[in-house]
Predict the 3D structure of the following.
Amino acid sequence: MAATNPDLRRSLTGISGILVTPFNDQDEVVPGRLTDIIERSITAGVHILVANGNTGEFYGLTTTEAERMVHQTAELVRGRVPLLGGVGRSIKDACTLARATRAAGATGLMIHQPPDPFVSPRGVIDYVKRVAEAGDGLPLMLYLRNETIGLDAIAQLCAVEGVIGVKWASPTPLRLAEAMRRTDPTIIWVGGLAETWAPPLCAVGARGFTSGLINVWPERSVAIHAALEAGDYQRAANLIDEISGFESLRAEEQNGTNVTTVKAALRLLDNDCGPTRPPSAWPLTEPQSSKLVRLLQDWRLLTEAGTRA
């Protein structure tokens, strides 16, 4: 297995904060609007940041836009925490973006699971190997939204040179435990279903978790991680319960309001990162918006007068 920056390995056991992609009124990518989000996240103690993840609307970006996002995000982060750049889609797009991510100075690659309707297990292994070659030594984080390629294929993926971790985004902790048993014990497993699923996935060995909430309330994500690190599952459960309404709102319309809810919250908090792009839902409906306002007020991020607290 390739040598890896120990700071990256350590950070992957923490919170991987998935940054939104900001757009302006002309539907252009404007990474500079991430400045406050990045500063708040680093100050709060978020361990690692990710550009071009799903909360970043990766599949709504062109490859050129994704390249711009990782380059300018790296400039904003300035090496203060590790930065992963998401890559994926067609193999040529993924390789192009892997090279760009390396040139940007990112710490590693997060390889999205190919969404092609005709995915074969051995084809995915070839895909990851080619991306690894394009990344030219950058550490690799696999992103598995499901485990339908089978545990044997997952074990082979984990054996690809450069793979140091797996983002497990499936609500199947027992399958995760079995996958862990079949792979190199140095592989780092990260819960890919955010705070809500962090406790059960952590219980079987996924020590880190991903979060889109960090764009809005990074301090809460850090508190949940600290509780899990301390083995205080009851405190973690209580902290998660307070954000459950937000996560439920993100899951509406077949998860079509996932990023919408985050960006709507940012707009309310005077950190406008623009709308989401179709096929994501935009804007929130009036009932959804009212619920979001109440949640932000309950969290004391928004005053009763509707201004940032």
